[in-house]
């Protein structure tokens, strides 16, 4: 092999390494952006069980009420609460604060003489 061909091969290898390195950085940045977007998502989720209870108990929430629940979850999180009872308009919501998920719901009728366990905080809104 002559010196000219060897230089071309070396240049191609260097270019390919640089290209692969750039592609890895792009993927890492994209993953990082997606991860941060998911991490910063403040919306509340409702478990399948909670959705079934809401339907069964005819609990309907408008966007303002959902925002109130999200704020209650934020307050509980700021105090270090992990599982919270959120009371709003004679309706109870049990929430996993870390997961920002409503686990179950209860109306005024179910609240009477009921004991809530496995909670470490309550927010009344």
Automatic annotation (TrEMBL):
Domain of life: Bacteria
Keywords: Cell projection, Cilium, Flagellum
NCBIfam families: flg_new
Name of the protein: Flagellar protein
Species for this entry: Thermohalobacter berrensis
